[in-house]
Design a protein that fits this description.
The chain is mainly alpha-helical and 154 residues long. It contains five helices and four strands; from the N terminus they run ββαααββαα.
């Protein structure tokens, strides 16, 4: 008797196509960088990332218009330092989208476990969400070389 393993179909990385100016977003990069497990399904993650992309693009609308008036058709063309072969503006853009999306995920999945340990984890996620929102805001500022500051009411 001979056993033949079924042929494995390679899993194609899903890439969300962005508007022409902004870079595309790879879901597998997001899962790897933001340490997101399979709890968040592919369709849900796609929906969250589409929303994050839309929000970050809206935040950067004026910046994009200024750059296009200067003749730059993509973010990669806008002058920037190159880190490990990639424009730091693109790195900041992806960081903004990733942090935005992860903050939304953490907010939505806090109540997933109602046990005592789940409640404690929810409190930890709540604190982490604040850090993610801050990081997203800073990354948006860094894309456009804008100053950033955090103001908190006491």
């Amino acid at each position: 008797m001979k056993f033949v393993a079924p042929e494995q179909t390679p899993v194609k990385a899903e890439v969300i196509r962005n508007t022409p100016f902004w870079p595309d977003v790879d879901l597998s990069d997001f899962r790897s960088v933001m340490r997101t497990d399979g709890t968040v399904t592919q369709p849900r993650l796609t929906q969250i990332l589409l929303s994050a992309i839309s929000e970050v693009n809206a935040e950067l609308y004026d910046f994009r218009n200024r750059q296009q008036r200067l003749g730059y058709q993509t973010l990669a063309e806008v002058p920037a330092e190159i880190l490990d072969g990639k424009s730091e503006r693109i790195r900041h853009y992806h960081n903004a989208v990733f942090c935005w999306a992860r903050a939304v995920i953490d907010e939505r999945y806090q109540d997933y476990d109602a046990t005592g340990s789940g409640v404690k984890r929810g409190e930890e996620l709540s604190e982490a969400c604040g850090d993610l929102w801050r990081d997203a805001r800073r990354a948006v500022s860094r894309v456009q070389d804008a100053p950033h500051c955090t103001v908190e009411l006491i």
